[in-house]
Amino acid sequence: MTPSTATENADRGPAIVGILWTEAAISLIITALRFYARGMIRKVGWDDWLMALTTALFITCTGLVTAQTSVGGYRHEEFLSTNDIVYALKINFILRGVDILAYATGKASIGALILRIVGHQNKWQRAVVWVVIVLTALLNVLNTISISFNANQ
């Protein structure tokens, strides 16, 4: 592929990586503080563990974005070799699934926190939150399957 003079050979990858690693560090600190506070009152719940899983998945996504950036994944394709394009797309394919899973666990964690706040006396509110958690998880699974088997990729 020959580079076009009309297209700038800009690499937005380093900026994206810098932002994501900063967010990952902040997320890790906040999650650690959450566990510290909940541990002090001996009330660590499954919402906390889901948020820890979400943080781990976010850090995994950030690592995948870093790997994708290393081969020019955030540059115009006309400036990349065919091998770099294939490798960046493979990483992107994996990244999509992990990213959707991170969204699902984050949303489930918020739902679990709401369940904790609502308590056991409000059965209809708990039922609504459970329906939302299950539907969100189901939609995220279907989204992952849809992306994985999309014939137009």
From TrEMBL:
Membrane-crossing ranges are: 15-37, 49-73, 93-115, 127-149
- Membrane topology reported for the UniProt record: Multi-pass membrane protein
Which compartment or compartments is the protein found in?
Membrane
Q: Which UniProt keywords apply?
A: Membrane, Transmembrane, Transmembrane helix
State the superkingdom.
Eukaryota
Tell me which GO cellular component terms the UniProt record holds. membrane
Q: Does the keyword tRNA-binding apply?
A: no
Give start and end of each Rhodopsin domain: 33-146
Give start-end ranges for the coiled-coil region(s).
none
The protein's matches in InterPro entries, at most eight in alphabetical order, are given as: Rhodopsin_dom_fungi, SAT4-like
Protein family (similarity comment): Belongs to the SAT4 family.
The entry's protein name is Rhodopsin domain-containing protein
Q: Which organism is it from?
A: Talaromyces marneffei (strain ATCC 18224 / CBS 334.59 / QM 7333) (Penicillium marneffei)
Q: What is the lineage of its organism?
A: Eukaryota, Fungi, Dikarya, Ascomycota, Pezizomycotina
